[in-house]
Write the structure tokens for this entry.
Amino acid sequence: MEDRQAFGRELRRYVVGLVLALVLSGAAFALVAWHPLPPDGLLGVIAGLALLQVVAHFRFFLHIDLKQSHRDDLQLILFTGLIIGLMVAGSLWIIFNQNQRMM
Amino acid sequence: MNGRIHPGINLRAGDQQPTTEGVMFGFWVFMMSDAVLFALLFAVYASLSGNTADGPDARQVFKLAPAALETGTLLLSSFTFGLASLAMKYRQSMAWLQGMLAATLGLGVIFLGLEIHDFMDMARQGALPQVSGFLSAFFALVPTHFLHVAFGCVWIVVVMLQLRVFGLTHTTRTRLLRLGLFWHFLDIVWVMLFSFVFLRGLL
């Protein structure tokens, strides 16, 4: 009995994750397909939707949350986020700069 | 402890062993290093995406509908993999587990087919990797994800065979869990791909 409840609870998480992912992706595609908003700042909105969706995937599909017992994995992910931020920002800075100098 | 969900270790307490935690954490480290690799390919793409060298640009070669279809396929395959994990955890039946893995594999293969179609379409328009910096970066980034999905499909076949031969042992269980992490991770990379490559190109 307890099993069936746990099964239902976990199934619900996956369903919520799928619905969230489909809604967020659908919104991003719809914004580009029908242009209901002016194009300025649209990229920012799409980036926001992508970020939300990544968080939803981590939360509902990969079971990452803020509880104490999960801290190791969360810290690994946050540290990787920091590394990615540094490397991507640094690469963009250098490559754009070189690009400009070659123009 | 029945409902306990640890990152990547979605087993019941009785199915876990002392080594499970370390093995799964190691796989997380691998996935995060893979994420760094993708992030750098993204950075290269972002800085080169304007350099079309009079070749075709993003607006000419990207199409919205196939990208949306690919997104739907991959999202659905992540969900079916989640159902496979649940079938394993709650021991519904081997048939359910194998069925859900087969569904995931099918969706993965459909995704690969759609992408091959896209690449061929681009090639027909003369959008080849050697044409411009934009296309070189594109063909470094997107086919890297394609290869990950292709290897994921091979991996699913291997795990399905192992489940058939060995049954649900501790080893096959944790292998299935790692495959699950890999598959969900590919979906996350695709979210970044469709947002920052296809949608950005078509704005």
Summary: The radius of gyration of chain B is 19 Å. Residues 82 and 141 of chain B are 27 Å apart (CA to CA). The first helix of chain B runs from residue 20 to 48.
